[in-house]
Amino acid sequence: MMRFATEQSARRDTCDSRELALNFFLPMPDVKVPIREFYSDYQPPRYFRSTVATLLKGVPEKYLQGLDCVVLTNQSGKSRQHRTGKITSRKRRIKQWGCLGLYHHGNRNGQAPWIEIFVDHIAAQAHESWINLLPIARYSMIGMVLYHEVGHHVHRTKRPEFREPEDVADQWSKTLLRQFLRRRYWYVRPVLRPIGKLCDLIVRGYSKRSSNNDRNSHLAAPRVK
Fold it and tell me: DSSP 3-state assignment of 118?
């Protein structure tokens, strides 16, 4: 059964990659998912909202169906209960503080699923001196977080798999970001792979350093109760 599930997942990954590749030369659609901002005593980087909007345009519309909105906020402005609360990730309870993003499932009262991005934590892991000079690094860092949460939505509503949800979301994050960068920076494709690996190492380095300071500095999403 496990082998069958693994082979089925591999076939799905291949089909998804081919489908995204077929859309390579199509113009990016308008964003259908609203972007909302709620900050408390915090000034976000001026490029953040526009970067998120551009990244959302790179996601096939069908994968965003049913998603209510993407909320940009700062976790430092949340209530103490929210900052010290715990969520379940990879079958263990961790503190919410330090998470880069969350995927909120819908409820029986009609609340649709939505994504929450903690801008302050992402910005804290980026060097403002160089990230503004390298748009590709900016898209990579923000895209890995946003697409990870989009991956949770796809996994739950479009492509259910019998695997660890975080692993599935990670795979979707890599797939969507790879296609986005290939599409936007098609003219540098010969060097895009090493640049992409460099950006990935940068993000992993910051995540690892942050994790050493606070074990909760990684992506997580609550489980369905």
Answer: strand
